[in-house]
């Protein structure tokens, strides 16, 4: 059984390179075709002959091999793939990808690539935890690179910890997920999430208790449904969700600027708990509490409304604009009025009274409100709610484009 999908597998020079052979075997069993670039380092761990035998194709390795360039330039190598998979992805190749370096066939192909990329990191646990590696991984994630693993366990170096290559079957499953188009493939979605921080001075801010869990779950669900998803998030303790482009911002003004920069888009979900106000002016230095220097009052000014700005009629208005309404009383009544005022298509209204535990909690209970009225949804985990919302979005998009 062939899926008709082609994977360009880049095997970098790590001790787990031998597992790439199993990835090829398992992948071919599941209908994937492989073309392989073996880096110089990778060839220290596995032989081109064993890779070629399993892949059923010749192995590519030298950038400056004229015969290879004549037969198959590095650009064609990536153009003919549906997915680029880097496994194992070493600290070195991750660093080169993050910084756009191209000094061999693998890194040159990666730079010339416009296909989805999946990396399966594998390295020593201390290397994986190093801030330099983590920063590079964050850069790649923000660019939309997909990451599978690493897992925890015994490492080849004899240590125990995070850094173990994901299991070959899990890597193949991640690749297949990316290759199977979802119901929202071809559409662009934006999600705002988390709180905003409004600076008072360089060390103090006005913020709120939003955890970002709901917005992040929605972004992940949209990406899983195939939408090209950008998450614009205020400061949260959450990792960046898989498969999304992520923009980290602090203030409402930055959130608005990033959101506008991402337009046009097909779908906007405004899940952020945007601060309604910000200090009218920001002190350049830390405010001192010494007598006379201390502010006795803080002048505030109103923040721009991101949802209302994007939902206003205009050529760049997304087809579907969805807001949230955080209320503590008369939830449906207030949220219905908010939907009209902000001109969004749907609003998800939740009761954020402290006793509900919604802010920061794992569950959420909402009323789904559209032009037809309000519908009560059951208590759901934030992940389930995200999936239910995305299913509704898919149904709506299908209705609009039968
Ligand atoms: N929102 C926004 N920009 C703002 C304020 C809110 O985009 N400056 C969005 C939120 O992301 C949410 C919706 O508007 O989708 C409603 O947010 P909410 O806090 O419930 O309403 P407010 O507009 O702040 O109104 P109020 O505080 O009066 O209830």
In short:
The protein is an alpha/beta fold. Helix content is 35%, strand content 24%. It has helices at residues 19-29, 42-45, 48-55, 66-71, 74-79, 91-99, 105-111, 125-129, 131-142, 168-179, 213-224, 252-262, 306-311, 331-342, 382-400, and strands at residues 5-11, 32-38, 59-60, 83-89, 117-121, 146-147, 151-154, 160-164, 188-193, 198-199, 205-206, 228-233, 245-248, 267-270, 277-279, 300-302, 320-327, 346-351, 363-364, 366-370, 373-376, 380-381.
Indicate the overall shape.
globular
Q: What is the end-to-end distance? A: 30 Å
- The percent range for helix content is 25-40%
Residues in β-strands, percent = 15-25%
What does this protein look like?
The chain is α/β, with parallel strands linked by helices and 402 residues long. The chain has helices at 19-29, 42-45, 48-55, 66-71, 74-79, 91-99, 105-111, 125-129, 131-142, 168-179, 213-224, 252-262, 306-311, 331-342, 382-400, and strands at residues 5-11, 32-38, 59-60, 83-89, 117-121, 146-147, 151-154, 160-164, 188-193, 198-199, 205-206, 228-233, 245-248, 267-270, 277-279, 300-302, 320-327, 346-351, 363-364, 366-370, 373-376, 380-381. The strands form six sheets. Strands 13-12-9-14-17-18-20-21 form an eight-stranded mixed β-sheet, sandwiched between helices. Helix 11 packs across helix 15 (382-400). The longest helix has 19 residues, at 382-400. It starts with a strand and ends with a helix. Bound molecules: cytidine-5'-triphosphate. Residues 192, 252, 270, 272, 274, 276, 303, 305-307, 323-326, 338 line the site of cytidine-5'-triphosphate. Cytidine-5'-triphosphate binds next to helix 13 and strand 17.
